[in-house]
Amino acid sequence: MISQVFVLSPRGDCVIFKDFRGDVPKTTPEAFGRRVQASRAAGSDLPPAVGIDGVQYLHVKVGDLLWVATTRVNLSPSLVSELLLRITVICRDYFGQVTEECVRRNLPLVYELLDEVMDYGFPQNSSTERLKQFIAIQPQAARSLPPGVTGVAGGG
């Protein structure tokens, strides 16, 4: 059973935080963020499963976001990784792309999706078509750049 799911931005900001069980400290995003920063400073990548103070962190990187699940029990890392990837696919199905901006613009929708996909830390329903029957919130489109603006220095 998964205790928490959270999403970290490239800066280490916690974009999403959902606590399903209350058995893991709420400071886990900060602890994991510090471990990620230390790993980057050392020039290495963090392994997909990391233990910190009795809490297991399992994560996947999608785009520039880290999707993280925590647990205190022994779970299959492949199951958790698959679930996290499935959640990102559902988000992409709903609002087109999984970027920090899209996730922030659709926070209520992401929280509602997490509530439907997981119940008390147990995966329930990960079919986008089935979820559309239960989700009433409409996605917010990402802001598009005006013509001629590329977001790249130098205008190229």
Automatic annotation (TrEMBL):
Q: Which UniProt keywords apply?
A: Membrane, Protein transport, Transport
Source domain of life: Eukaryota
**Record localization:** Endomembrane system
The entry's cellular-component GO terms read: clathrin adaptor complex; endomembrane system
Q: Which InterPro entries match?
A: Adaptor_comp_med_subunit, Clathrin_mu, Longin-like_dom_sf
Q: Which PANTHER family match?
A: AP COMPLEX SUBUNIT MU
One GO biological-process annotation of the entry reads: intracellular protein transport
Q: What is this protein called?
A: AP complex mu/sigma subunit domain-containing protein
Taxonomic classification: Eukaryota, Viridiplantae, Chlorophyta, core chlorophytes, Trebouxiophyceae
